[in-house]
């Protein structure tokens, strides 16, 4: 449990630093972290899918504009670089949660497009 809290705190700090370096985005990384924290056990191979889909759907519904989606994309890439995430599980989350997105979730995704 303490490891999970430490990981979440570290993720928040990394994302805040990333935001500060890019300036204020349309949708903050704090929202991304908040919505996707329930997914961490699953995408780090430490637990089941659990309540992850609620956060995935909330994030999908909140990111309506192109700048919002670009901001979410950049935050996700920062998270993926900071943690040992199972990329196959992360890429499969939208489908598992009933969310249809028109792009592939991958560290190589160009967030500017």
UniProtKB/TrEMBL annotation:
UniProt domain Bifunctional inhibitor/plant lipid transfer protein/seed storage helical: residue ranges: 29-111
GO biological process: lipid transport
Coiled-coil boundaries: none
GO molecular function terms listed in the Swiss-Prot or TrEMBL record: lipid binding
Family annotation (InterPro entries): Bifun_inhib/LTP/seed_sf, Bifunc_inhib/LTP/seed_store, Plant_nsLTP
Signal peptide: 1-25
Keyword tags: Lipid-binding, Signal, Transport
Pfam families reported in the protein's UniProt record: Tryp_alpha_amyl
SUPFAM superfamilies: Bifunctional inhibitor/lipid-transfer protein/seed storage 2S albumin
Family: Belongs to the plant LTP family.
Function: Plant non-specific lipid-transfer proteins transfer phospholipids as well as galactolipids across membranes. May play a role in wax or cutin deposition in the cell walls of expanding epidermal cells and certain secretory tissues.
Identification of the protein by name: Non-specific lipid-transfer protein
Naturally occurring in which organism (per UniProt): Dorcoceras hygrometricum
Highest classification ranks of the organism: Eukaryota, Viridiplantae, Streptophyta, Embryophyta, Tracheophyta
